Amino acid sequence: MDFTLKIMGTASAMSVIGRFQSAHVLTVHGRSSLIDCGEGTQRQLLRFGVPLMKIDNIYISHIHGDHIFGLFGLLSTIGMLGRTAGINIYAPENFGPILKFFMSYYGAGLNFEVNHVPLTMKEPELIFETRTLSVYAFPLNHKIETFGFRFQEKTPMLNVHKDAISRWGLSLTEIGTLKRGENVQRPDGTVIPVSQAAYRPYVPRSYAYCSDTAPFPELAQWVSGVDLLYHETTYLAGMEDHARDRNHSTTLDAARCALEAGVGKLIIGHYSSRCQDASLYQAECRTVFPNTFAASDGDVFDLPFVKQNTYLCGDSTQDDGRQD
Amino acid sequence: MDFTLKIMGTASAMSVIGRFQSAHVLTVHGRSSLIDCGEGTQRQLLRFGVPLMKIDNIYISHIHGDHIFGLFGLLSTIGMLGRTAGINIYAPENFGPILKFFMSYYGAGLNFEVNHVPLTMKEPELIFETRTLSVYAFPLNHKIETFGFRFQEKTPMLNVHKDAISRWGLSLTEIGTLKRGENVQRPDGTVIPVSQAAYRPYVPRSYAYCSDTAPFPELAQWVSGVDLLYHETTYLAGMEDHARDRNHSTTLDAARCALEAGVGKLIIGHYSSRCQDASLYQAECRTVFPNTFAASDGDVFDLPFVKQNTYLCGDSTQDDGRQD
C-alpha cells in the first residue's frame, strides 16, 4: 500500500552537473506514474531503481525541452524491453504533433500503443482513476500551455468494528448501511450511529505537482490540503523580476502557496543554473513555510500507510460513496 | 596543435548504468567536432570538460535514437548559452525532416543557424575542410542509411632547413620551390634535392569513426592507415548471428578491419546491453589486432604532435600542394 514519490531530476532548462532535468515518479499501490521526462530520465530511472516496465501512465506538464526530451529515448527503450501494454500520455494539445512525428519515425519499433490524451481544462478535472487513485489536471500559468497534476488516493470505504458487530448483533444489511456512512435506524427506534460503529481503515494520501508556473490566485485552492506539494522554485526571492518575466516562481511564491493551501510538506526544485545551492532555496522557503524540503536527484518521499483503526468520532472526512 | 578524441558514450541502443550512448568529440587544433549525439550527451560534455561553445560541426552517422536523441537538448542549451555562430550538421538525408520538425517547435529560441548538410555519397567524399583538417564521409552497411567519417589532418607544407639555406645560399624563389616539394635546378646544372634540404614539420594525424555497421569489403580501404580507428563492436564473437541479423559487427569483424586497414590503434565501443564487460570485447579483438582498446565513457585518446625536424630522406609522403 505504498505512496512513494521519487525525484529523478531537479534542474531547470539549462543542463548542469549533478542535476538532471524534471521527472518525478509517483508509485501508488504498486503502480507508477511518470510525471515529466527531461533528457536522461531513463538513465535516472535505472540509477534509482525504478522499474521501467512498471510505468503505467505518463503525465507531461508542457512541451519545453527540459520536460520532454527524455521521452523519445524512454519509449524506445521500453519498446526494446518488450512492452506490449499500451501507455497513455496526458499532455497539452501541442504535444500531439510531437508524438505523431516521433511515432512516424520510431513507432515501427514499438509493440505497444502510445495514446495522447490532450489536456485542455481551465480548472481541475479528473483525468484518470483506478480503484484507489484519482488524478486531476489543472492549468498552470506559464509561457506556454502548462498543466499541474494532483494525485489523490481515494477515501477508502468504511470498515465496521468487530466489537460493534457483536455488541449490536449487526445484520449484513446493517453492516452495509454503516459501510456507506449512514446510521442504522432499527424498527424499534434504536439508532446505531456510524460514528460509533465504523472506522476509516487508512488515511488517504495526496501529492500535487506544479511546474512550471508563475503564482496565481486559484492555485492554492487547487492543491489545498495535499500531503506533498511539489512546487517549482526556479529563482531565489531576489530574482522576482526574472521570475515574472519568465512566468516562473520564486522560493517565496512557492512557500506562500504551500502555506495558503495548508499542505503537509513542500518539496522544491527546478533550480536555475545561476544558483545550484539548494540550501539557499530551502532557507528562503522556510521563512514562510517551515516544512520545506529542497529536493536533489534521487530523493525519496515515502508517505506512510497510516491505519486508522479507531471510531469515526472526530473524523470530518465523509465517505464519497465510491467503491474502492 | 592538439588532436584529441574524447569518448562521451559507449553503450548501444539500450540504456545501461555507467555508459551513455554514442557520442565522440574530436578536437583538432582547438576546434571540436561532435560525432553522434546520444541522449544525455550534453551532460557528458559538461562532465568531461568539453566546452559546449567550442563545437564547430556536428556529424551524425544515422538517425537511430541512440545516436541523435541528445541533439535537441544540446542545441537548446547552446542556444541558451548565447551561441550566434551557425552550426552545420552533416547527416543522412532522412535527418532533414527531424531537424525541420525540431526547429519548427524549438527553433525560435535559437539565435544561430542550424544547417543540415545531407550525406548521399556511395564512396568517400570530402565534406568539410579547414586549413589543417579534411573530413571525409563514406557509407556504412547498417539497416538504415548510415555514414562513417574520416578526420585527416592535412599534410603540412614542407619547411626548409636553416642549414640548407646557408649551405646552398638559397634564394627566396628556391626556398619556395623546395617548399612545394620540388628539386631546385640551377642554371649551372646544380641540383638541390628536396630530400636533402626540406623536412615535413610534423606527422599528420587521422581518426576514423565507424558506427553502426556490418563488415563489408571496402571499409578497410576507406579507413586505411588511420592512427585511430573507432569501430563498433556491438557483439562478442559468439553472437555473430545476432550481428548479421542486425547489421552490426562483432569484435572479430572490427579487429579484422583494423588489421587489414593497417591502423595504429583500434578503439571499440557500442557494447550490447547483454554484455557490459568491455574487457571481454577487448580480449577477443586482441587475438587478431593486439593494439585494441575497449573504450569507456570519458576516455581520452591524445595523438601527440610529432615534430619531424629531419630531412625528407625515407619520407614517402608527398606534399599535396595545399597551403595550411
Order of helices and strands of chain A: EEEHEHHEHEEEEEHHEEHEEHEHHEHEE
Based on CA inertia axes, which overall geometry of chain A fits?
Answer: globular
Q: What kind of assembly state do the chains in view correspond to? A: homodimer
Our count of domains of chain A comes out at: 2
- Total helices of chain A: the number is 11
CATH T-level fold name of the largest domain in chain A: Metallo-beta-lactamase, Chain A
* Poorly predicted tracts of residues of chain A: 314-324
Mean pLDDT of chain A: 93
- The CATH architecture of the largest domain in chain A can be named as 4-Layer Sandwich
Tally of strands of chain A: 18
Q: Give, in spatial order, the strands making up the sheet with the most strands of chain A.
A: 6-5-4-3-2-1-18
The greatest interface here is: A-B, 28 and 28 residues
Structural class call of chain A reads alpha/beta
- Termini gap of chain A: 13 Å
CATH H-level name of the largest domain in chain A... which superfamily?
Ribonuclease Z/Hydroxyacylglutathione hydrolase-like
Q: Compute the CA-based radius of gyration of chain A.
A: 22 Å
